[in-house]
């Protein structure tokens, strides 16, 4: 019998046939590996009995982890938590090109922490800029105001290499640039005279007169027999207390200080020279003397628009301790230190001091890392009022003052 001639399969039929053959092979493989597949699945599942918990004490993994953590705790803190804070190198000779000698001298002194206090740093910066303007020579075929603005930027950048600019310095620089922009079409001599006189007026109005007005407002608030506590050194606090003594007020001052800068020693010397009875204690003795205190007065590095006081590290502890005992806390602060910034913690933005200033006797222990943070934040709840040249203000009025200042 002749073989029946098979018809060729269509592409659809071929695809269906291959699919059926593949399914048959897969079914056959599953049947062969059915016994061994269950152990393989169990092997991939985690078993609480077979796998020890590395977080439990006593395990090898836990011991290694604890050892590693102990050795790198401080490095982790510096590298992760405060790694964004930069420690400026100590500046020195030679004088960089395009940097005025007065600015160079100030930067070196700031780098060595010989100029402390935001008010004093702002004053010295303006005096250095004043000398720089007098000595500046305009390049040929350029306008004095335009070239001076560029030259000023180089001086500012060099000062930043020494230390971060304070809020008062930043506000003063912003004002100076506005003054330069008003002199675009004036001659070199006219520009120099206008700027030199403007800087003198700014120092007189925003620094000297402001502290004088604050003193006039604050002195009547000091009662006879008061025991006033203050922390570190503030030029305006020193002036208020000395003026109160000259005005016949009878009071006593407790100066709280902390290492490594020991700024309170300078305030102590100034108050003793004015015949003001003083006591000097370190931060560790704060709670032993608070029972005698009737008021706490503090200086400020800056006041932020959310009412936070930004000042020397330790200020927050003094203010909080006094608030817990219902002791009023007053802040003496010039409006030049007001900032529109909002800061919620002292870690996001801060400044590192030099670790060698702490003078730690750590020997060859390389696992110890010295950390010197310069500032902290005091919440507005701990501040009774802020005494400024504009009057007595609550912390919530800081943004109002900034807005009015800019509109004027």
TrEMBL record:
Keywords: Cytoplasm, Initiation factor, Protein biosynthesis. Belongs to the eIF-2B alpha/beta/delta subunits family. It holds the Pfam family IF-2B. It comes from the Eukaryota. InterPro entries: IF-2B-related, IF_2B-like_C, M1Pi_N, NagB/RpiA_transferase-like. It is found in: Cytoplasm, Cytosol. GO terms for biological process: cytoplasmic translational initiation. PANTHER family: TRANSLATION INITIATION FACTOR EIF-2B, TRANSLATION INITIATION FACTOR EIF-2B SUBUNIT DELTA. Signal peptide: none annotated. Component of the translation initiation factor 2B (eIF2B) complex which is a heterodecamer of two sets of five different subunits: alpha, beta, gamma, delta and epsilon. Subunits alpha, beta and delta comprise a regulatory subcomplex and subunits epsilon and gamma comprise a catalytic subcomplex. Within the complex, the hexameric regulatory complex resides at the center, with the two heterodimeric catalytic subcomplexes bound on opposite sides. One of its GO terms (cellular component) is eukaryotic translation initiation factor 2B complex. This is Translation initiation factor eIF2B subunit delta. One of its GO terms (molecular function) is translation initiation factor activity. Residues 1-73 are annotated as: Disordered. Residues 16-28 have a biased composition (Basic residues).
């Amino acid at each position: 019998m002749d073989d029946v001639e098979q018809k060729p399969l269509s592409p659809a039929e071929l695809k269906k046939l291959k699919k059926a053959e593949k399914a048959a092979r897969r079914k056959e493989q599953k049947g062969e590996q059915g016994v061994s597949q269950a152990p393989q699945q169990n092997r991939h599942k985690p078993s609480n009995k077979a796998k020890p918990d590395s977080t439990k004490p006593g395990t090898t993994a836990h011991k290694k982890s604890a050892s590693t953590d102990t050795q790198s705790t401080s490095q982790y803190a510096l590298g992760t938590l405060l790694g964004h804070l930069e420690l400026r190198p100590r500046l020195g000779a030679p004088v960089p090109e395009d940097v005025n000698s007065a600015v160079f001298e100030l930067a070196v002194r700031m780098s060595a922490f010989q100029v402390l206090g935001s008010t004093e740093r702002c004053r010295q910066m303006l005096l250095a800029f004043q000398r720089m303007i007098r000595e500046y020579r305009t390049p040929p075929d350029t306008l004095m105001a335009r070239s001076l603005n560029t030259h000023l930027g180089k001086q500012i950048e060099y000062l930043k290499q020494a230390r971060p600019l304070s809020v008062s310095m930043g506000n003063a620089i912003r004002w100076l640039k506005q003054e330069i922009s008003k002199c675009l079409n004036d001659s070199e001599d006219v520009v120099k005279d206008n700027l030199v006189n403007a800087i003198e007026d700014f120092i007189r109005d925003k620094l000297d007169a402001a502290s004088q007005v604050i003193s006039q407002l604050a002195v009547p608030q000091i009662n006879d027999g008061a025991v006033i506590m203050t922390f570190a050194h503030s030029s305006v606090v020193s002036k208020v207390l000395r003026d109160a003594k000259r005005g016949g007020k009878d009071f006593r001052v407790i100066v709280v200080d902390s290492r490594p800068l020991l700024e309170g020693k300078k305030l102590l010397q100034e108050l003793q020279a004015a015949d003001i009875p003083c006591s000097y204690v370190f931060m560790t003795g704060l709670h032993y003397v608070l029972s005698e205190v009737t008021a706490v007065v503090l200086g400020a590095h800056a006041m932020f628009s959310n009412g936070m006081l930004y000042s020397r590290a330790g200020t927050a502890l003094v203010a909080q301790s006094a608030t817990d005992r219902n002791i009023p806390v007053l802040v003496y602060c010039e409006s030049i230190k007001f900032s529109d910034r909002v800061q919620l913690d002292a870690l996001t933005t801060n400044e590192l001091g030099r670790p060698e200033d702490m003078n730690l006797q750590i020997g060859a222990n390389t696992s110890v890392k010295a950390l010197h943070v310069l500032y902290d934040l005091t919440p507005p709840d701990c501040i009774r009022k802020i005494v400024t040249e504009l009057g007595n203000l609550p912390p919530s009025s800081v943004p109002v003052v900034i807005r009015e200042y800019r509109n004027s």
